[in-house]
Amino acid sequence: MACSRTPFAALTLLLVCGGCGGSPYDLAPATGSVTIDGQPFGHGKVMFAPVSQGSQVEVGKPAFGLLNPDGTFTLSTYAADDGAVIGKHWVTVFREDDGPNGPAPAGVPKFGRVVVPAPVEVTDGANNLRIDLTAEQVRRLGAPN
């Protein structure tokens, strides 16, 4: 009796690839704004990098958002505007003076990137996250390009 391997191969492929696509992590929609000394900062992008908890090694991909002229952003991780992994994140603000919004105002200290001093939490449900920095924090924590 001849035995076909085709059904076994098809079943194996289905089990292996059945979960392909999408995110293995829970995401939540996330928008927000960046200010420096209370003024909107719309000259670059933000990155939200998930923080590992305890012995957790894999925490998901970072989310990115382009800064609009009014300092607002919408985060994307695996697809456009899908949000960020639920949990705490280290946030980095990147300055881009040659971006579509032009150079930053003269009063903003020069920096390439600045890491926000405390983690920011993305919770289940819609999130409106405020990243409020001072010029002093930018001078102290900012790194050159």
> What global shape is seen?
globular
Strand content: 35-45%
Arithmetic mean of pLDDT: 86
- Give the CATH topology: Immunoglobulin-like
Query: Which CATH-level-2 architecture?
Result: Sandwich
Quaternary: single chain
Protein architecture, described:
The chain has 145 residues and is mainly β. The protein has one domain: Immunoglobulin-like (Sandwich). The protein has two helices and twelve strands; from the N terminus they run αβββββββββββαβ. It has helices spanning 6-17, 135-141; strands at 27-28, 30-36, 39-40, 44-50, 63-66, 72-74, 84-85, 87-95, 113-115, 120-122, 127-133, 142-143.
Fold topology:
Layout: H1 6-17, E1 27-28, E2 30-36, E3 39-40, E4 44-50, E5 63-66, E6 72-74, E7 84-85, E8 87-95, E9 113-115, E10 120-122, E11 127-133, H2 135-141, E12 142-143
Parallel strand pairs: 2-11
Antiparallel strand pairs: 1-7, 2-3, 2-6, 4-5, 4-8, 8-9, 8-10, 9-12
Protein name: Carboxypeptidase regulatory-like domain-containing protein
Organism: Posidoniimonas polymericola
